[in-house]
Amino acid sequence: MVIGAGQAGLAASHHLSQRGIEHVVLDANPQPGGAWQHRWDSLTMQDVHGVADLPGEPAPPRSGKRANDAVPAYFGAYEARHDVPVLRPVRVDRVESEGELLVVHAGERQWRTRTLVNATGTWTRPFVPFYPDIDTFAGEQFHTATYPGSEYLRGRHVLIVGGGASAVQFIGELAPITPVTWVTRREPVWRHDDFTPEAGLAAVTMVEERVVQGLPPASVVTVTGLALREQEQGAAELGAYDARRPMFERIEPRGVRWADGSFEAVDVILWATGFRAAVDHLAPLRLTSPHGGIALERVDGNVQGATTAVRDHRVQLVGYGPSASTIGASRAARQAALAVERALRETEADAAELTPVGG
Question: 8 φ, ψ to 5°?
């Protein structure tokens, strides 16, 4: 059983099929594309930070095409060519343990399976931090997941909250056409050299260290740093990245109140504050450690290969922690399939891996 048909889920399905393991992929979306189909229209393939190849198929090249068209088309074609056994739309409510089996619930439907690959990503779990009187704001509030595009915000004062790559991208898109104020909790760390393989390894290793300890995955920006691309130079020339302010004290109906008592009127708050792992449906399995995250077992020599849940070896998590990037998800999918193969072999389950119940 695979839950999720994004990059991680499709890659996991491929590697399971390569090993002759019968499975089904449950996808909550009505059509192919994973989270990419929900991204904003102004995000082009030239803007994205990279789409990794699915096994055996090159990813779409950089171009002016909308990412929310190009990537879903790529995923859909991949599903068709590789006969990926996807069922959709199926939104999984919970996963429970029943003896040696796991029971996957989606409304009135159920599936029993000996193993599970969870590939649900983060898009459905946008994170917005609590600030006093956030609900009193009379303007509009958006998160990265609901960003309406630059034209919708033209002419309005936008407060952008967040210190990651999305915030930098939004500033680059908005600052040339509308007033922008940028706030972060910490001083941004800028990278002025090329992003080397060594830097990438350090970032992934940092995340892996957290998940093997059972800590929630952290942002890799603290290691990789932020960089400005060509399309953000216009905003840089306007000084938009130099005018960053520390976090405000509270939100008021027409704007924000700073720590020094001064007030700034804003029309829109854009929360570029990231996402959390979409793993609530796994709660009945009690995989979470006392530290608040799902501990994964380290795989020697492969920092992106930590996929097996420490508290239940039947469960593999791909696209979680060190494999949260598209490249990492594709690599980790192979490790997950190997772990599934080992688990089935250990339980001498050489027959069908999946038994549907109730349709």
Answer: -65, -45
